[in-house]
Design brief:
The protein has 303 residues and is of the alpha/beta class. 50% of the residues lie in helices and 17% in strands. Helix 2 links the parallel strand 2 and strand 3.
Length: 303
């Protein structure tokens, strides 16, 4: 059994398309849709649509809990009620066209046991391969550096210039391609120890046994995969990227519905990212301090 957790917010057509794609996959698969308190009543509409479908469960969240806590709700429910071998967490704007997608996950695990797995994610908008996001590990230093950059970028003039790039889709597409090319990441080869893209990520049962709510709960949106990378490295977990499984990603669907203004959308993204970075910095400092104190205590007991 594989579970597919889809976080839903307003964009009902995308959620239905994503769900129907999953239902066509080979193997035993169950879809768990988490409605993140959509204000347009689309959560209830989805619940009514799939109420008699044994392969789909719709959960209505009482609040818009964001990416991490919303997905954690669905992952925990699936883990406790379905006991899946693998749990795929994907955005509702992701489509899976490989009929044997679920079967390939099992084959990858048999050859390369993993805790977290990421597929090749192709942006429909720009054509770039979005995963891995980075070949470099997430650290406290890199988090602080990113935080300072985000704070500076919220200067009204810089925000306007940044938003201006997106007024011209053709130009923005080229910007994304240029920025991706600068990373010099070869998405055609498998890799381990990389930061994955969060629009589609797969957790094995061995990871969810210890972490049934896999995402750091103090973020609303953004930087979740960097934090997951940091936590997994601390525990010696295996994060793997494998391009033999692939998905299509239609970007910005829900955010475009929520924020028609590009400037407002940019401000929302920057504010959420800053909050996530500050939460990540606080967590890393706290965990590192705790680990150091535990090590000192262990030495003292040994002596």
């Amino acid at each position: 059994m594989n579970a597919f957790v889809i976080l839903h917010y307003r964009a009902i057509d995308s959620t239905i398309t994503c769900t129907e794609c999953i239902k066509k996959l080979l193997g035993e698969n169950h879809v768990v849709i988490v409605d993140n308190a959509s204000p347009d009543d689309t959560g209830r509409m989805l619940q009514e649509k799939y109420m008699n479908d044994p392969d789909v469960t719709v959960l209505l969240n009482g609040e818009n809990a964001g990416f991490a806590r919303g997905n954690n709700l669905g992952v925990r429910w699936a883990w406790e009620n379905l006991h899946p071998e693998f749990t795929v967490v994907l955005n509702n704007d992701v489509e899976i066209e490989q009929a044997d997608f679920s079967l390939r996950i099992s084959e990858i695990y048999l050859e390369h046991p993993f805790d977290v797995l990421g597929p090749d994610i192709v942006s429909v908008f720009s054509g770039i391969h979005q995963s891995p996001k980075s070949l470099h590990r997430c650290t406290l230093e890199s988090t602080r550096k990113k935080l300072e950059y985000v704070k500076r970028s919220q200067n009204p003039i810089l925000m306007l210039l940044s938003s201006g790039e997106k007024w011209n889709p053709a130009f923005w597409r080229q910007v994304q391609r240029y920025n991706r090319a600068k990373q010099k990441i070869d998405s055609s080869v498998p890799a381990e120890g990389v930061i994955l893209h969060g629009s589609c990520v797969i957790f094995s049962a061995r990871y969810l046994t210890d972490h049934p709510e896999p995402f750091f709960c103090k973020t609303f949106m953004y930087y979740e995969m960097e934090i997951l990378d940091w936590l997994c490295r601390r525990e010696g977990r295996v994060i793997r990227y494998d391009p033999s499984i692939t998905v299509k990603h239609y970007q910005y669907v829900a955010s475009k519905m929520e924020y028609r203004s590009i400037v407002k959308r940019s401000k929302f993204v920057a504010a959420c990212l800053q909050d996530s970075l500050e939460a990540a910095e606080e967590m890393m400092i706290s965990v590192t301090r705790h680990d150091a104190e535990h090590k000192i205590h262990s030495y003292a007991v040994a002596e």
